[in-house]
Amino acid sequence: MRMANHAELVKKVIAGEFEKMLRLNSFSDIFIMDLVTTCGISRNTFYYYFKDKYDLMNHIAVADIASMEARQTEEITFGEVVLSVCGMMFYRRKFYYPCLQYSGQNSLYEFLNEYFAARWLEIVSSPKTFDETDEMSTDKLVAGMKSFAVVGKIKEWVKMGMTEKQFKSFEKIRDILNDEAACYQFCPKEQYTVVESREMKIVS
After folding, report:
1. Is 103 domain-assigned?
2. One GO molecular-function annotation for this sequence (predicted)?
């Protein structure tokens, strides 16, 4: 128990100093050597807990998401999940805005894509039966498209500076997503098909 508490304390210190550095530096200008010096730890200690700064960044996001989910009810809709995540990022934009300037491998955008796809499957597709190993299943294709669309809107929001005015648009996006989810749950899966334009339509 003592070792576990120590590990959590070290990770908390590293995460805290990382966030402080992001207030003064861009994500690309933060280096592990500077971070460990600020924390008063060795490079070996850092790499014992995190693979790199991208892993650290995602660790913080996972912790934020877990804290957010702890306050959610079981009846939450997919649209509310999206709005909650965006609200959390807006509230903590001093951390998320600089991190979301990076869009390469292991970025927060990749994390969000996976997260939203998983939540769609959990919330919207749960009444359906689908093969989790089948990457071409209708459920997974739809989940991937919904996630990709949501993350695309988040990218637009970031480009506009993550302003409060643009954040308000996610309230309308929430309603649109909830309507789409209700339609998907109501209609038999056999009535859906993926068209060449990569959009979903109901086949009459």
Report:
1. yes
2. DNA binding
| 180 Cα distance to chain centroid | 20
Mean pLDDT computed over 57-73: 93
Q: What backbone phi and psi angles, to 5 degrees, belong to 97?
A: -60, -50
Residues 111 and 177 in one domain: yes
Condensed to tens digits (0 to 9), the pLDDT of residues 30-64 reads 999 999 999 999 999 999 999 999 999 999 999 99
Q: Are residues 116 and 164 in the same domain?
A: yes
Contact (CB, 8 A) for 61 and 109:
no
Domain of 167, in residue numbers: 53-185
Number of structural domains, the chain? 2
* 151 shares a domain with 91: yes
- Whole-model pTM: value is 0.85
> What percent of the residues of the chain are helix, what percent strand, and what percent coil, each to the nearest 5?
70, 5, 30
70 and 36, same structural domain? no
Answer whether residue 122 shows pLDDT above 70.
Answer: yes
* Residues 196, 131: Cα–Cα separation, whole Å: 23
Euclidean distance between CA atoms 118 and 36, whole angstroms: 34
User: Does residue 104 fall inside a structural domain?
Assistant: yes
Clarify whether residues 9 and 58 are in a common domain.
no
Task: Tell me the DSSP string of 73-111.
Answer: -TT--HHHHHHHHHHHHHHTHHHHHHHTT--STT-HHHH
